[in-house]
Amino acid sequence: MHPAQRTFGNLCSKRFVSRMSIKSQKESQEEAETQNRHEPKDFKIKNAPKLATLAHRLRLAIYEGKSVNLKKNDALGKAMTSAIEQGMPRNDAQKILENFRKENDHLHTHLIQIRYMHKIYVIITACSESLQNLQLKLKPTLERYEAAFGYVMPFFNNTSDIEALVSFKTAADFQNLENTLKCDGRACKARSIEMLDSETGAVSFKCNPMELLSACKILQQRKYVILHVAYDFVPKSRVILCHHERQVYEQFLKRIWKLTNILNVYDNVNKKSL
Fold this sequence. Notes:
The chain is of the alpha+beta class. It contains ten helices and nine strands.
């Protein structure tokens, strides 16, 4: 990371907050005139919840200290203590460390959608240089269990989150900071933007999961440092499996998890079934 990057937040935090809360009539008029016609009406930069900011501080400490080991990373130890003192459950803090440890290159993280038993919908996140190679590895398992690749996204409420650090140049340009963030949000087709931490220059772009990779590339081209990406898929409804279905599905999942580079598996199965 550029040595100056950690200082820009202290330069822009108060100014940014004030610009979010107070706007002149002229500024509002100019913003409305330049607003992209496809931009949602509520496309405004909001402050992220406190716990999200604390989670960012933990990830930033790992990124800068290059270690998830508390004994080897003093900054992480301090961030962990601070997060817990400010209300973050210790287990949640520990999960952030564990998830960051196993994260791979976000530009090579793929979504794989599967239909199974005519009623089970599965979304897999996995890391690979090639989506085609992942599908080839999964194909024998799918054929054995009579599952198939298929579009299941409509059965889930979904979002993806890109946690990024703005460039020093962007942060230093006080007059256009907010407009620049909005412009970048439109460019990567973000659904919404949150200011995670004005002191560190961290921004969260909420995107369509199917467009996350292209969004990351666009933000990197605009000199953002991508710190963390996350998917979230919540089924709109869940299915209950009988005893036999549950046993077969458990075997199916075990074979999926045996494949390398599987990051997560989301489905619409009632967990009580398992």
